[in-house]
Amino acid sequence: MDKAIVDLCWPLARLGEGIEELARQAGLSPESRNRIAPEPLQQQDIADLSRWIEWASDRLALEAEPIETPVSQFGQLLRNVSPAVLQVKTGEESQFLLLLKLKFGKLLLIGPDLQVHRCSVDMLRAAICEPFEIPISAEIDHLLQLANVPKQQWQQVRAVMVRERLAGQRIRGCWLLRLPPTTGFWRQLSQAHLPRRALLMVTVFMLLYGMEMAGWALIGQAALNGRLDFGWLTAWVLLVLSLIPLHLLGGWLDSMFALDMGRILKKRLLAGALRMDLQSVKHQGAGQFLGRVMESQALESLALNGGFSVVVATVELVFAGFILAYGAGGQLHLLLLTGWLALTLALVWRYFKRLQEWTLMRLDMTHELVERMVGHRTRLAQESATRRNAEEDQTVQEYLNASKGLDGAITPIIGGLSRGWLIIGLIGLAPAFISGASSASALAISLGGILLANRALSGATGGLAALARAGIAWTQVSALFHSGSKKPANEAFLTAAQIAGASTTHVTTKLIDASDLVFRYQPQSDPVLRGVNISIYKGERILLEGSSGGGKSTLASLLVGLRKPDSGLLLLNGLDSHTLGESWHSLATEAPQFHENHILTGTLAFNLLMGRQWPASEGDIQEAHALCVDLGLGELLERMPSGMMQMVGETGWQLSHGERSRIFLARALLQNTQLTILDESFAALDPESLEKCLNCAFERAQTLLVIAHP
Ligand SMILES: Nc1ncnc2c1ncn2[C@@H]1O[C@H](COP(=O)(O)OP(=O)(O)OP(=O)(O)O)[C@@H](O)[C@H]1O
């Protein structure tokens, strides 16, 4: 490896300091004083590197996204991924490069001397791809010799051959540092320079209107003074032409702003949706969520378009106010314009209230519709035909009435306000016109002001109506937005051995230790679980029986960390949920009951291996295939034209009840966790399949808890 690159490498022991420096120089963590420096990882724990980098970044209120790419595309990756941490293998040791950014075609790297150094993309690419390329280069050179390729073409041909040979190999060991979507929204906006861009946008539009008005003043004055010759016209045309690049700049700034704002907002809402507590998700139902998704899309487009129109209209109104004040109408015109604006706001408020009522009704209808669609078969089979549509007419009638009210509120806003202002503006000009006291130029200025205010009002009314709709959408998605914020982790880093309860200082054979657990679904309701004590030792096979509704599935969800107990102590490998954090899920998993488990639309392989790294390795796919055969699904796999890559789910191959239940079982077993809970996973199986599946579970699960009604 090039000596210049070796000098830029950071040792593992200083990586925490390096990440902190990288984040600081990349402007990702301005408030460095309040952060806690992550403890370094030791070289012997290198297997935990990826988790450690993610944990250390979390400590700095950042997110480290692991990125992998085919070797052939690594150069491209280097150009696009920054700031990033890159792993470099130097002998047995792992060292690291800190990539700050790409500037004028060169990469900027932070060295251990804390200085920024420049380096070419090719040089860095060669250094990191070396371990992949060296083993095959001798063989390729031999081939080139045999093929009598002229020496001067070797470099070129070798590069192509290396690329071809390494096409299937992927490089790991690259982590992109960025602000997580859970960071404060304002900080994300400033990081993307959005406030600055908004200010620039307003300035461009102010300039645009200033110039536009100057143009009209120029031509108007020349016409009124009778000096409209070729020179004046040329000056006017030049002014108008110079508006074109400004218009383009304004449009570009506007779309870039909208894109970035939309991206940040979407990421935040998605993060919120994924972090929502299981209970509230269940409580709201699929229909409500569908409604929310629709509202979140509306929020983005309406808030941006509406907000932008209102800003532009405000600029126009300020200019119109100035012009009117200087015109023949003077104070009277200003007064009329203020009154008209007040009327506009009042009408928009009325529209907002009616829209609120209408939206709630629409969301309820969406919810009901989804529920009816889901339960359609049941209704056809069970519900009396006469009752089936009984309530629909009344609901639709109420919805129609609300829609009529909404139309009544929007019509004057869209159609009437700007046109009405034209009439009011002209009436305001009448006294000056009739009395003849004002000059022709003052009348012309007033007329220009009225027209500009008319344009502003039509933009403002559309914009305000869109903002009102965005406001309603916000009330629907604000919970998602707020649940997307999170504080950085405070827990100490745990190595894989510590999590597994097998580190040198802490060895435990007790996998689950629960005492006095209490859980209730609603704060005011009776507990479903009360005073539960249970100990599960590693390697045990346990059958959990009990009366229906006794709380077995609820207990399972506590043990796999999907729910938290209201009180009591629950330890996994001697560690509580606060200490283990997300790692709880890598230790304990369950195959939930049939009605709570799903085959997702995707390949069979994805459905089986979704708990592992995706895209899956060849080895993972073979393991999943072998397990399916053990569970008696071999014949099904043979029938499927694409085998493991067969599309399944709603729109794919329709699996039978028993097939699904075996895929759910395989999915849980393939996670290879220390504790596997199977919640009534065998209910749909015939005795022969049941025996096969049970044997498989006994063989594969490290510790097994089976919930069943034998
Ligand atoms: N969201 C909820 N709100 C209130 N009560 C709930 C909720 N979910 C479940 N319960 C109640 O909690 C109790 C325990 O349910 P759980 O599903 O854990 O029982 P179970 O022992 O697994 O039953 P089964 O053997 O019938 O599957 C039941 O009485 C159930 O009605």
Describe this structure in words.
The chain is an alpha+beta fold and 710 residues long. It has 4 domains: 3-178, no CATH class; 184-275; 289-485, ABC transporter type 1, transmembrane domain (ABC transporter transmembrane region fold, Up-down Bundle); 496-599 and 655-707, P-loop containing nucleotide triphosphate hydrolases (Rossmann fold, 3-Layer(aba) Sandwich), CATH 3.40.50. The chain is built from 23 helices and 18 strands. Strands 1, 2, 3, 4, 5, 6 and 7 form a 7-stranded antiparallel β-sheet that branches. A 4-stranded parallel β-sheet has the order 12-18-17-14, with helices on both faces. Strands 11-10-13 form a 3-stranded antiparallel β-sheet, covered by helices on one side. A hairpin with a 2-residue loop joins strand 8 and strand 9 (506-507). Helix 5 packs across helix 6. The longest helix has 49 residues, at 278-326. Adenosine-5'-triphosphate (ATP) binds at residues 521, 528, 546, 548-554.
